[in-house]
Design a protein that fits this description.
The chain is of the alpha/beta class. The protein has helices at residues 89-98, 120-137, 150-159, 180-184, 190-202, 222-229, 244-251, 276-286, 306-320; strands at 14-19, 42-44, 47-54, 62-66, 71-76, 102-106, 142-148, 169-175, 259-264, 291-295. This is AB hydrolase-1 domain-containing protein.
């Protein structure tokens, strides 16, 4: 939910490096050692080695892949996210490289400030295009999807579309699957804006933009505001006030895909009244028995628990990933 603004356009497939902005940071127990130099995915701290490529016709449809392996983990960020969205991506890339996996980060039409004029439906189309590219151009044996924040909603929606390439998804990690609606309800003015969005949609103006005060950080349509903020909107998948039946209706199709839920027990975007332990238990049950990982004191992006989240993801991927790589289409 931190605003970023740098976009990439008109980039053809090249070998390149990508760096994070320089930051002053002292070593901590959360740092994970990186394999610097040589042929690894990380050259030095905050600098990646990999391939930058176009996976679709839009200028925004750019992806960056570290490692040159036939098994890929695709990271899908949340609202305002783009490349290098979380601090755990660098050590995750190194850990995946050691296991002979590639990490793929990519931009969608909804990346950075584009989320307000996009939708889960559009996200799913573009995610399918990326997986198709990996299958047809990179000879992929299958993928694992890792979602952060609203990226979890993209994954859940995509897996419910039965798109052809969704059969190549061998596992899913949902990191910080929390309710945008419940968080937005804590902010002043949200209720009035939901009413306005509902009126605009009923008048056939769902694609029109809301007033600037609805979201000062990005232009947002009536439809997307309603989707994110209204009860049972299209994005409303992880709210604590949904019944068990409603959660099963929204999440139950995930039961056929191995799934891990990583929940931050100090997530700043979860209202204090929410019983986090009860919520994550209900979510895992609705997902068909997903693996539950509770990270005590972890914040939304787990920037304060990097080592723990990487270890959890690698353990899940090693357990669930390699079982059926021989034929993604069986």
């Amino acid at each position: 939910m931190n605003l970023s603004s740098s976009l990439l356009s008109s980039i053809s497939s090249v070998r390149t490096k990508i760096s994070t902005p320089k930051m002053t940071k002292t070593p901590s127990e959360n740092d994970v050692g990186v394999g610097v130099g040589g042929g690894g995915s990380v050259i030095r701290k905050n600098q990646f080695r990999g391939s930058l490529f176009k996976y679709g016709s839009k200028s925004i449809q750019v992806a960056f892949k570290t490692g040159d392996f036939r098994r890929q983990v695709i990271f899908i960020g949340g609202l305002t996210d783009g490349f290098l969205a979380t601090e755990y991506l660098e050590p995750l890339s190194v850990a995946l490289d050691n296991e002979k996996w590639s990490l793929v980060q990519f931009l969608l039409s909804s990346s950075y400030i584009g989320y307000g004029t996009s939708s889960l439906k559009q996200d799913a189309v573009e995610l399918d295009q990326l997986i198709s590219y990996l299958i047809n151009k990179e000879d992929s044996e299958g993928v694992v999807l890792v979602g952060h924040s609203t990226g979890c909603q993209i994954i859940v929606h995509y897996m419910g579309t039965n798109a052809a390439c969704s059969r190549a998804v061998r596992g899913v990690v949902l990191q910080a699957p929390v309710s945008d609606r419940e968080y937005m309800a804590t902010l002043p003015g949200t209720a009035a804006m939901i009413d306005l969005a509902s009126s605009m949609i009923s008048e056939g103006r769902g694609t029109d933009l809301m007033p600037r005060e609805a979201d000062p950080g990005a232009p947002i349509t009536a439809y997307r505001y309603h989707s994110l903020c209204a009860y049972m909107g299209d994005d409303d998948m992880f709210s604590s006030d949904l019944s068990d039946d409603q959660l099963r209706m929204r999440l139950g199709h995930m039961s056929t895909t191995p799934c891990q839920v990583i929940f931050s027990m100090a997530d700043e975007f979860v209202p204090e009244y929410v019983d986090k332990k009860a919520l994550v238990e209900r979510l895992c049950r609705a997902l068909g028995g997903a693996e539950k990982v509770e990270i005590e004191w972890g914040n939304h992006s787990l920037s304060n628990r990097v080592k723990e989240v990487v270890q959890a993801m690698i353990s899940f991927i090693k357990t669930e990933g390699p079982k059926g790589w021989d034929d993604p289409w069986s």
